[in-house]
Amino acid sequence: MPQKPNENKMGVMPVGRLLFGMAIPMMFSMLFQALYNVVDSIFVARIGQDALNAVSLAFPLQNLMISVGVGTSVGMNALLSRSLGEGKQDAADRAANVAIFLSLCSFAAFAVIGLGFSGLFFRSLTQNEQIIRYGSAYTGICLGVSVGAMGQCCFERMLQSTGRTGLSMATQVTGAAINIVLDPILIFGLFGFPRMEVAGAAVATVAGQIVAALMALWFNVRRNPDVRLSAREIRWHAPTAREIYRVGVPSILMMSVGSVMNFFLNRILISFTEAATAVFGVYFKLQSFVFMPVFGLNNAMVPIVAYNYGAAKAERMKQTIRLAAASAVCLMTAGLLLFQFAPGALLGFFDPSEEMRSIGVVALRIISFCFPFAGFGIVSGSVCQAIGNPFHTLVISVCRQLVVLLPSAWLLSLTGRLEWVWLAFVIAEGASMLLSAVFLRRTLKDADENFRARGVAA
């Protein structure tokens, strides 16, 4: 069928070529982002285990901040793509501009949290004064200057929503490269710069985020004709904000649940030994190499599914979902094999003590059995968000992390054997996969009814 003059490629390009053409740049850029997260910890680990623990324990606050930024952008992404698919340009423009306003408000809130409450947060986890000092400095900078993180989430999602994943990749890679270059310079005080230690890692992070956000903004203004940004329209608009957060709030809550899980699991682990919390932090850095490509694939899938749902192209939507789910499981299986056969080599990048190495090898091998289950769950949850049933995703996340994982970890910790605590991840992800399958089936059934009501064959 010939392409309509103004029709977006998401509605006409062959699905396989479209999905992987959009996904590969995102996967590459997110792998690069995973690399800079790992590089942060590799350099910080050379200061000492207290420094590595400080960065690891900071994860719940950082994750909460990213949850709000990404969740708001996910809501914008779904609304913007759906509006474009329905041919509603004004609604798409309004979604983009209101999302910028909401992102700026989020930055202001997290600046207050980071600058005012970081010390209190770390004292709730440990009495080690060195960890508290390192952690307070790190989170104070990362949250206090989070304008770059919020802007990066928002502007990159605009590019992804309209299929311009190559431009999104360029901004992410540039920001990550700046972070990687600045890390050793600022942490260790090279080339005449002062030695900032853990604070230097934070400054390198926010510098990369700010540059990436400015690049993404420039690309949207100059090279994204599907979205029209206007300073006058960056303001509150209740109906649009409500629609963004209808999808975005469940995503925010879903990701924030991870912060709650991480906080309480750290409390369980630190009761065994501080080395266990360091291992847990290192695991999160290493598993990002497995999860980030799947998130890249997922980010490419969401606007395609949302666009074709809005355009009433049922078969294209379903074909995209099937291909994304199969690809995600394959990627996660590859990650499982890596963690099974090379856990010692992976841990070796972080200068582990003998205690940390012995704990870490066991932990990586056990936890990685959940990877294939997680691949299916990630895609299923995002399908629910893209089609407009985000509540399902929230229920899955809460059940996985709060209803199953934390209670399982606590009960297993009562055995006094640390290695059993790691089994909670596998138990939780297996339960999550079953629940994801139920909700995905229900979501697709609702979509079929919507298509029939619009006179389209499901």
Number of helices: 17
Number of domains: 1
Helix and strand run: HHHHHHHHHHHHHHHHH
User: How many β-strand runs?
Assistant: 0
Oligomer: single chain
Shape: globular
First-residue to last-residue Cα separation: 20 Å
> Helical proportion?
over 70%
Describe it.
- This protein is mostly helical and about 450 residues long.
- It has one domain (about 10-455).
- It contains 17 helices and no strands.
- Helix 1 (about 15-45) runs parallel beside helix 7, helix 3 runs parallel beside helix 6 and helix 4 (about 90-125) packs antiparallel against helix 6.
- The longest helix is centred in the middle third of the chain and has 37 residues, at about 275-310.
- The chain starts with 14 loop residues before the first helix and ends in a 5-residue tail after the last helix.
- The model is unreliable at about 1-5 (pLDDT under 50).
Annotation keywords:
single chain, 458 residues, mainly alpha, 82% helix, disordered N terminus
Brief account:
The protein is built from 17 helices and no strands. It is mostly helical and 458 residues long. It has one domain.
